[in-house]
Amino acid sequence: MHKKTIIYRGNLKSCNYRCSYCPFAKHKALPVEIEKDRQSFDRFCDSIEKRAQTFSIGAVFITPYGEASIHRWYWEGLSHLAGIPEIDRVGMQTNLSFPMEECLKGFNFPHKLCIWATFHPEMTTVDEFVAKCHELVNHHVMVCAGAVGVPENIPVLRELREKLSPVIYLWINKMDGLKRNYRPDEIETFAQLDPFFTYELKNPDADLQMCVDRCFVEADGKIHTCNISRTKDINWYDGSEEEIFEPVCSRKRCSCYLAYGGRADFALRNIFGEYPIYRIPEKLRGVGEDL
Ligand code: SF4
Hints:
alpha/beta
């Protein structure tokens, strides 16, 4: 039995980047939506603080639609949660566009902070992205970096791997919507860039018993066992521990990293450690390195 991992996704459906393929790039958030997101996140953080000990919560991970890191309440909330003794890790998925000095200044226990950095080649350069990843490491923050495996982007992803410090793991996600299978040479190239890329193509059969230590929470408290499993009938804010963590799923396969990477039987736990959801190999964290 592991300590619990809680993933949170707020109300945000807007982003400061304008990637051509992304629906969140086109939505301009209204002030009322932003305020609702802040209130929802504050409520969520309060609930974690109250329940961390009784529920044995070890990790909290923000996986927003759009970009959360540009809103200060996410940093304030994660910093507060990092100060809770039971919490071993807090983290967030981000495009790294947040003002780093300002956001990390005064962050409680930065060694508990895990950043999942996604590279968007339409919106930033390799040099700019790499510099930010290295800056995070120099701030003693754990980080992984990665991108979607778009075949046309192979040259720029090679450049990214070459320029990124070897202490930072580069992941490649399989591309949804490619409308064809990857060619063998593309798989070989992506596997050279990301030694665990083949796990993206395996998609294990769903097995609920592997998902008793996790919960995915939405802004209004709707819960799922993982990010792709169906909504449960009870709410995060009303349910008992037993109800919240009783696994429910109607999927045939665990088809993305946030799903398969959080399973108790994930084969790479020996590499990614107790909280593999952050995708940061234990031996490659780079903490304490000066890059
Ligand atoms: S789809 Fe999600 S909840 Fe269902 S078995 Fe896979 S990881 Fe577990």
